[in-house]
Design a protein that fits this description.
The longest helix is centred in the C-terminal third of the chain and has 20 residues, at about 295-315. This protein folds into two domains: about 1-65 and about 80-210, no CATH class; about 215-345, no CATH class. By secondary structure, it is an alpha+beta fold. It has twelve helices and 13 strands.
Length: about 350
């Protein structure tokens, strides 16, 4: 089960060595909350963190990103793409966010390949960290089958301890890059039989620690939604919605964007940027002629829930909602995705 073992102190040293070649990005404490940030010293990483307000998505798919620069001169026009493919390493990514990144990988590689995302993703190593227990009340990652990950990482950390209570990281390789990084390091040791037993104990305890919040099976959600398109539930729930887009902003699987061209004062050169957009914003479905395809909050709420629990999975084969609960925590109106799922099941 385990490939290697390492002490927390040695792991920090290994990450700092990795930082000579890659940007190190991981959870950092800001007051009583955690955010993914680039760090110069791995000792700043809070690997025992509960959850990050935002996932690491913004480092793969930035909120504002320049796609290309363009210039017009004497009747000619040139455009030069802008790529950011600096080597990076995410350190401390929970399983739910690993599943979210897996979805983004699928989306940006389907149909027309998004080279800006894929180049950045190809230059990024991911070091996951397994969760011993739910990170917060209201999470339903186990219901969505996203509380554990068997792929999508280069190295996975298991928080273990020996018989004397000393903390150690159990390491599992998920790629050749992860194996190459650590296999020959003198800081790592081979797992013992006791280490393997500790890992088995950890996984058994984890399986028992995650409660179920969903009253139906996740596989039933698409059919429940199919039958609930005209349900009065959407209007009743959306009466509380402020259409602020906080759910979109914090969701690790939202990937909608808008485009904006900015020109200099001479009107001869500029940049094209893409910016995050959100389906809960009133102007999201507004088109030329001032027609809005979803003018009511109820329509926008229904659209978001259908995408997360039905349409994205049908299109990609991957969960569109990973059960992290960020949207519920961010919602100023206290609208809960899992409560909507449960109400649909009750009304069915």
């Amino acid at each position: 089960m385990l490939d290697l073992m390492v002490t927390p102190a040695d792991f920090v040293a290994l990450v700092n060595e990795l930082g000579r070649k890659r940007r190190i990005i991981g959870p950092v404490a800001r007051g009583d909350r955690y955010f993914y940030e680039e760090v110069g010293d791995a000792a700043r990483l809070e690997l025992g963190f509960s959850y990050a307000v935002y996932g690491p998505k913004s480092f793969l798919f930035p909120a504002v990103e320049t796609l290309f620069r363009f210039e017009a001169d004497n009747g000619s026009f040139t455009a030069e793409p802008v790529y950011d493919d600096r080597p990076a390493a995410f350190v401390g990514v929970h399983p739910c966010d690993l599943h979210a990144i897996r979805l983004l990988d699928r989306v940006f590689a389907q149909d027309r390949r998004d080279e800006h995302y894929l180049r950045r993703r190809g230059a990024t190593m991911i070091i996951g960290i397994d969760c011993a227990r739910p990170c917060n009340e209201g999470v339903f990652c186990a219901d969505m089958k996203c509380h554990q990950a068997d792929e999508g990482f280069d190295v996975m950390l298991l928080p273990l301890s020996d018989g004397d209570g000393n903390r150690r990281w159990g390491l599992k390789f998920g790629s050749a890059a992860g194996r190459e990084w650590l296999t020959y390091s003198r800081r790592c040791t081979a797992p013992t039989a006791a280490d393997e037993r500790a890992a088995e104990t950890f996984l058994r305890a984890k399986a028992a620690a995650f409660p179920r919040a969903l009253t139906t099976r996740v596989e039933r959600l698409p059919e429940l939604l199919e039958r609930s398109y005209d349900s009065l539930l959407w209007e009743a729930t959306a009466r509380r919605c402020y259409s602020c887009g906080s759910c979109n902003l914090t969701c690790p699987t939202c990937y909608c964007f808008d485009m904006s061209d900015s020109l200099d004062l001479s009107l001869t050169s500029g940049v094209r940027q893409r910016l995050w957009d959100g389906c809960q914003l009133p102007g999201f479905a507004l088109v030329a002629g001032n027609h809005n395809f979803r003018p009511r909050a109820a329509q926008r709420l229904r659209h978001r829930i259908f995408r997360k629990a039905k349409w994205i999975r049908e299109r990609t084969g991957v969960a569109g909602c990973v059960g992290c609960g960020r949207c519920d925590r961010a919602c100023t109106a206290k609208i809960s995705a899992v409560e909507i799922y449960n109400q649909l099941a009750e009304l069915d």
